[in-house]
Amino acid sequence: MTKAFVIFGIVFLIGILLVVYKYQHRKDLHDDVDLLKSVINQIFEEAETPTVSQNRLIKGLKQHLGINEKMALKLIGKARHEELLEIESTDFKKIGKIQYKKKFE
Known about the structure:
Low-confidence stretches: none
Order of helices and strands: HHEHHEE
Number of strands: 3
Structural class: mainly alpha
Helix content: 55-70%
Radius of gyration: 19 Å
Mean pLDDT: 87
């Protein structure tokens, strides 16, 4: 019984540590404005256009940062709040047709 309890305790502790690590990693991504700025700059350089669609921006953030779509949308909101991105045009009839342009050089 004590061996099973120790093994269960170790597995539980490892699970808790993984959850804390994932939370801290996402928090660090959300708080690091310089990293977000450099990734957005890379996405616009790859696109070679002054504006980028929301879908392309999400795909770029997912690719460069290894995050899911929900976190990518949160980072787009953070970038808009920090005035790194600006909405250029919208077409609400088609999902993902919001065009963003960067506000920094």
